[in-house]
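Recap from last week: sequence in, structure out.
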Amino acid sequence: MITLEKMLDLSSYELEKEVYYVFAYARKSQPKRETEDEENRIEKDLEMQVARLEDYCKRKGWKFKLFREVKSGENISDRPVMQEMLKEIQEGFCDAVIVVDYDRLSRGSGRDQERILNVLRNSATLIVEVSGVIFNPLNREDMNRLKMKGLFSNFEYGQIVSRFTSYKRIGAKEGKWVSGKTPFGYDRDRKTKHLIINKEEGEIYKERILKPFLNGKIVDQIVQELNNAKIPSPRNKEWTTPTVIKLLKSELYCGTIIYNKTTGSKKSMDSINKDPYRKLPPEKWTYAYDAHPPLKTLEEQDIILGLFKTRGKIQSKTNLHPLHALVKCYNCGHSMHIQKCKQKKDQEKEKFRFKPCKCGKNKGGTIEIIDTVINGVFKIYEEKLLATNIKQDEVLKQSMYAKDVEKIKNEIALNEKAIERIENAFEMGEYTIEKMIRSRKKREGIIVKLIKDIEQIHSKQSKITVIDKDKMLKRLRQYKKRILQYHNNPEKLREVYINIFDKIIWKKMKDDEAEITVKFLLEDRS
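Predicted structure tokens:
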């Protein structure tokens, strides 16, 4: 066992003979972009380090404890495994720390290096490299050598950071994705490094975010519908309003990559290798147009920004009506615009009305009728819930879907047999090769369509959940209570409406009475 006295009196060669138990530390820097290839490369590199460390310890006959870490060597504060190892070193659990190279311990600031060396000095612990070099932190010459190695490692790290930043800037100009995790709606092509559309997420962006917003829905409603449909957000959590706003406003979905918006790091105070964080003016940004397939047009982008500008003004007003953007035209599906009526002198309460829809096929009218309808619909919906066996209904739906799938599978089998007959006819000389290919291609096309039909049915089946009727009734009654509670608070009342109504459809032809259809959000969000 190595003691303080031995480190002060013995040479490195003599100290090596006193070593019995060591800590073996293997570290690989965390990648900026975590892809499967990067993870495999890191794991392979770590395994190589571990193999060399284990081999050296076995050759020397040392017992060892292995510490593995995938973190940058810049800051100890970001390296939990290193912190754990230093704590155990301070408690005097080992004679030496063995690494492939000293820079595996630290590549950061002098402050971090001083901290590591002080722990090693105070606990009488050697540093050993697998090349056979031994450093005694209590020996002045060894300390100078370690400081020089640390200085060069830090310089090399700064050069790596500088080169990496330059490569990212060049890649961005070429339209490659160099900014870490790929954005929602896209994947990164491994060969070209460009973004390609993720079919499933791209469909969600276009059909559930972009189109509803352009058709008049506000962001809160879009967020509500995404969460009700149990669609995971980009971070695999629930959707939030800021997330949807960011996706809607982003130019990236027009096929444009903008790089160099900021410089430096928010963690610059912890590192001498990083510049202070600051935002750059637009004239210094790097643009790459048509870098990848777009999910929206430039015209749609202009409309979105304009809508945010106008809707922002509308929604900031204190007289925003609770039904704003919830009531839709029966014909075109756009939101019915609400207009404040001129207040008469003897009139105590403000009145509102719907303006005629721009499609020209739906007249406007007084808005108070909606309140009457909502009260009536609540009662009808509650009675319907009490009378309905929801669980039985859902089981029946599953059974119907299963029958549909079985029917389609039989059609697929028939078309597969037809292809066999076509091929047999060709072999018998009854069909020419052109006729055989044409006939087979037709049947294969039918099969592909049928398979897609099955996939759509499976998708519908996966969305069927057995809803707890008692919970739904409880929630419905809570909302009724809140509507009465907040009838003089438009903002709070709107929150209630958004949570329970999917949409309210308005239909008024000529001077006829308005037809109003209220659609509830059926999902159980309790």
